[in-house]
Amino acid sequence: MSESEEKIIEIDNVYYEYPEGIQALRGVTNYVLRGEIVAIMGENGAGKTTLIKHFNGLLKPTRGRIKVKDKDTRETSVAELSRIVGIVFQNPDHQLFAETVFDEVAFPLRNFGFPEDAIENRVKWALNILELYQYRDNSPFMLSVGERKRLAIASVLAYDPEVIVLDEPTAGQDYLQKEKISEIIKLLKLMGKTIVLVTHDVEFVTMYVQRIIVMSQGKIIAEGPPHRVLTDYNVIRRGNLLPPQLVRISRALYGKSLLDRYDYLSVEDLSREIISKMREANGGTSSI
Amino acid sequence: MEALRAFKTIKKDSPYDRLDPRTRFFLSTVLALLAIYSSRLDTQLIVLTCVLSLSFMAKRVRVILRGLYGSLFLLVLIFTLNFVFTPNLQGAIYALVMTLRFATLITSFALFFNSTSPEEIGIALEGVGVPRDFSLLINMSFRFVPTLANDIQIVSDALRSRGLELEKGRLYNRIKNYVYLLVPLIIFEVRRSMMIAEALEARGYGLDVKPTRLVSLKFTWKDYLAIGLALLGTFLLYSFGFL
Amino acid sequence: MREKLVYLRDVSYRYPDSETQTLQDINFDGYRDEIVLLIGPSGCGKSTLARIFNGLIPNFYGGQLQGEIDIAGYDPRKTPTAKFAKTVGFVFQNPENQLFFNTVERELAFGLENLGVPPAEIRKKTDQVLREYGIEELRQRSPFELSSGQQQKVALASVMIMEPQILILDEPTANLDPFSALKMLGLIAKKTREHRMLTILIEHRLEIALQFATRVVVMNEGQIIADGPPLETVLKTDYIVGAPPMVQLSKKLQSSGFPINIDKLVPEAMALEIIRKLSKGGLDERKRREDNRDR
Description:
Radius of gyration of chain B: 23 Å
Number of domains of chain B: 2
Main location (chain C): membrane
Oligomer: heterotrimer
Order of helices and strands of chain A: EEEHEEHEHHHEHEHEEHHHH
Number of helices of chain A: 11
Largest sheet of chain A: 6 strands, mixed
CATH superfamily of the largest domain in chain A: P-loop containing nucleotide triphosphate hydrolases
Strand content of chain B: under 5%
Protein name (chain C): ABC transporter ATP-binding protein
Structural class of chain A: alpha/beta
Distance between the termini of chain B: 34 Å
Function (chain C): Probably part of an ABC transporter complex. Responsible for energy coupling to the transport system.
Radius of gyration of chain A: 21 Å
Domain ABC transporter (chain C): 6-246
Number of domains of chain A: 2
Number of strands of chain A: 10
GO molecular function (chain C): ATP binding; ATP hydrolysis activity; ATPase-coupled transmembrane transporter activity
Helix content of chain B: over 70%
Largest interface: A-C, 49 and 49 residues
Number of strands of chain B: 0
CATH architecture of the largest domain in chain A: 3-Layer(aba) Sandwich
Strand content of chain A: 15-25%
CATH class of the largest domain in chain A: Alpha Beta
Order of helices and strands of chain B: HHHHHHHHHH
Structural class of chain B: mainly alpha
């Protein structure tokens, strides 16, 4: 297997049952390739968050196994796995406790045993990237909602895990915050990180993601590139998602044979098609 | 864990369930008090038998026995601790009395909590004159226990993902690490309680009107009968010298 | 003549211990039969404004509230929050924090109990609402066991049972998946029409919420910067609030000389318009060629 095809996470027929008896994962098999951006989508309760908690060992499969960089998660501690897979959970308020923003980001570094001077450098670096350096001596609780979210990401980025998992990064975020998160994801990709996004934001996912895994009721029901998965209405329905708006428009146009395909995910592409068709229909003139 | 499960609420169709929750509480209390008051072995056996008979009438014998089984460790501990100081027949009897007393306390109240939802506890409290604020507090405490348990799990997951070691290592260090959970948890729950308070007011709580109640309690002949029998039983035990 | 239910003139507000004004120069009129979508970046003051409508500000939060305010005849500075409950319903973002009891039935009854409604009437209304919202089989269930979509439905029902004239919803679909969010917002729109309310909805997911709005109000840094018809207002402020893809598409088409008239902000409606334009254009083009041939 070539370097670019390395499976950094392998999921092998995983079952997980919660102590109260709920079967959250029912035979999931898949993988995450090094360097890819993959999204896991599906309805609430489909098992998405349960699955990602297996990536750093918070949960161990009741059947089957998960390998992270060839380490079996059942035999490796959470701390050790977290060094490789950093998870940014949905609500940053569940983890903030430090007196300063600096200490908050330094916390995992200290836990992992980094030397103090390395910590200083890494924290500075991470805060700069997330545009939080000016708050380094402030209390984390003084930051706005969007800033706290960035702080959670900085805290994971600082110890440089190879895989970064973001659990619902755009939930409850406004437009400007979402733009910022997009930029961060682009940057992480440039840094060579592997990114896993758990989300049900279909519009967000069309822009950055190379592969989508759709889950429903503990199983994977579909997998593939966005233009294939997000145009499959059967899959979308089962995952309790909505098709992206542009797909809905192109589907209607395709139905009237005005387009040859309906997997349009970008405004540029679709508008170009429609405008050229409009121009044709008008014999080259521009307005009706 | 099994012992705690006996305290969870399950609704059943039995004469016991048809009693007013206040009556059920009264019965459990009477049995508990009898057990506490008497130091005689035969009385303890009588009282415990009463609890089991009541469980039978409530169709909950298996649940109660499972609860007892779950507390076996505790019961054995109580017996041993008491027997160790006076290791003779006298001591054994005394230790047995202590153990049975404890068993009665657990089972009589497990029976009550197993059949009485937090809702009913709230109504019962209001029925005996407890102010609404307090009964609401009790009700909501029950309601939010699973939520709180969930939050603890979430906070510990988040911190463990950041390298906090809660599984391995020396006990002292692990306990020290659990302290890290407290700050985010407390702040989170305080915020949560603010949001709950907001929502309560937005729903009209605290209006200067006398609040009504959808469901209200009413004593029936069954309740009077049960209370009467309990008092009669106590009187008989007393007059025959069992107490 | 539309019935005005809410009137705010030159309203400003500052939280206690805060050095900055959270709201300033707020002018807003709200009418019956409206669904106002209130949007803006985090921190713009929309949640604060929303809480003026049911008296939480200033009663619960304190602070300084100034200006002329009339909410269905009440002034929040002179009326306690609980008194607003009969007229203004408020649905919060997190279902967990607004469901207090162990059964759905009690949750529904609670608001009416607080208002001192006689038990027989509470019973009647509870049965009716359980039917109306299709949650009869959930009557004795604990809200904790329900899905988040069902929880928010119960939260909405327990507010609507009090028959408010004004309904405020602060990001009610934040925790829901897209399909459940769509259903929830559809339900809210339906109830607004049925009960002829003024509904003020705070939402970030414009691609789902915009289609239900009759009016959009945009806030930024404590002020209202735009207030008008949905499409026009979002186009005007898209650099702050972000336009959903179909709105971006319409903007592109417009700037290339092909304006599309969308009255219902749903992708399918826009597609229909495009189809119509293309067919008509095709018709015109064929006619033009025929005319040329005939000449």
